[in-house]
Amino acid sequence: MAWKWSRRIVLGLILFGCVLAASVARAGTMKLFLKDGTYQLVSSYEVQGDRVRYYSVERSEWEEVPKSLVDLEATRKAQEEEKASQQKQLEEARELEKERFEKPENSGYEVAPGLRLPQEEGIYSVDGLRVIRMLQSSAEIVTDKKRAALLMALPGPLVKSRSLVVLQGTKAAIRLAQFLPVFYVQSAEGLGARLELIQVKPEKETRLVEMVEVRGKMGKPAAGANPTELRTTVPLERTQLAPGLYKLQPTHPLEPGEYALGELDQEKLNLELWDFGVGETPGK
What are the CA-CA distances from residue 134 to residues 49, 97, 184, 206 (Å)? Predict the structure, then answer.
């Protein structure tokens, strides 16, 4: 059986180790409070008549002060609070560490025998016996310099100005082995109904997602002109499996190359994309 290494569990393991290390480091170390509000870090102390003898952690030697200068009640109270705090932290860390063994990896929708989606919202793909969480990348809009130069050269007539929507880098970090991948979209807001699969084009240092054209003069939109978004899309078969859960799959095998899932909002593409590649590994 597989076990879940969620972010919460990893943090729990780190916390567990830190608490143990801190406990060891603090073992035998305490604060001896003085009545003037200051304190000495000591490994032990004892009351001898009207004197308090203690071993200074800072100076690594035995020292004495008059008992009248020491706040013994505050010292004992601080020791009790420190022990209680350490115990609470250890218990919390142990509970988180136990989840590593007790909490199954997947407890959501079953996409294959014995293979389930995580419960968290997101976009997932299945690669054999693995569930892959798709990652988002932010696209940016840049100016088509060639078209801008044309506008400057021909100021009179109306010419379409063009901007480019690009992703940085020529290859996505996530690579899928399947040429007919399946995507599962978990979203309470019905994201799966608004996604589009886009074939992106690698350029010199970026990947072209789409071109945005608007008719205008000298780089200014004409009155009433609406931008036109031009992109290469791949038809998707879209199935709603459950409330908030959609299954998406291309209607035909994908060609080797770069792709992205993008959300459409009133026919406008959101610049936060889920990009991936098919057929090659990054850097090749």
Answer: 71, 27, 10, 19
Rg (CA), the chain: 32
Contact (CB, 8 A) for 203 and 258: no
Distance separating alpha carbons of residues 231 and 116, to the nearest angstrom = 34
3-state helix, strand, coil in the chain (%, to 5): 25, 45, 30
Q: How far, in Å, are 158, 165, 186 from residue 152 at the CA level?
A: 11, 22, 47
pLDDT in tens, 13-36: 555 555 444 444 444 688 899 999
Domains contained in the chain, CATH given = 7-102 (2.30.30.100), 113-278 (no CATH)
Tokens (6 digits) for 214 = 């608007």
Half-sphere exposure of 159 (CA within 13 A, CB side): 17
* Residues 118-162: tens digit of each pLDDT: 989 999 998 878 899 999 999 998 876 554 544 555 455 555 677
Report the distance separating Cα 38 and Cα 60, nearest Å.
19
